[in-house]
Amino acid sequence: MGSVTTDRAAFFEGVAAEFLQHYRRGPRFVAVTGVAAADRGAAADALADALRAAGQTVERVSVAPGTTPDGFRESVVAPFRAGEGVLVVDGDGLLADDFRGFWNFSLWIEHDPERDADWSFVSTGRKDPLGAPREVASVLFDDADPERPRRLFADSC
Fold first, then answer.
1. SS3 state of residue 117
2. For residue 4, what is the enclosing H or E element?
3. pTM (2 decimals)?
4. What is the arithmetic mean of pLDDT over 17-24?
């Protein structure tokens, strides 16, 4: 199966539970990024709300275009590391090589209203044209219908 569709609240509750299964304590960092048409901020807000509902302390940050990894480390990561909780960050390019090491968990958002629900690398036989960001994300999903996000599974197993 290439994808699973669910309602928005249940989707983000499930993602929060998946994250918390692996990362229960300490300062934890989550990236929310994706294609340009994706609503990264809304997805990050929904995940932050689901984490709060699960009893977590959550801070939300949006990374401005052009932010350097060193600037991000100094202004956001260093102050947050001293605390306990989850930092949910949205922005462009957060899974690029120079940012990738910051995250415990990451979401990559597609936005393709034309994609078949059973699309996958296996069924199409095509290499991912977007490359590494999709290959390293913890969770892939399509937000073409914001009220019914569709989890994508792009692995070959």
1. coil
2. strand 3-5
3. 0.85
4. 97
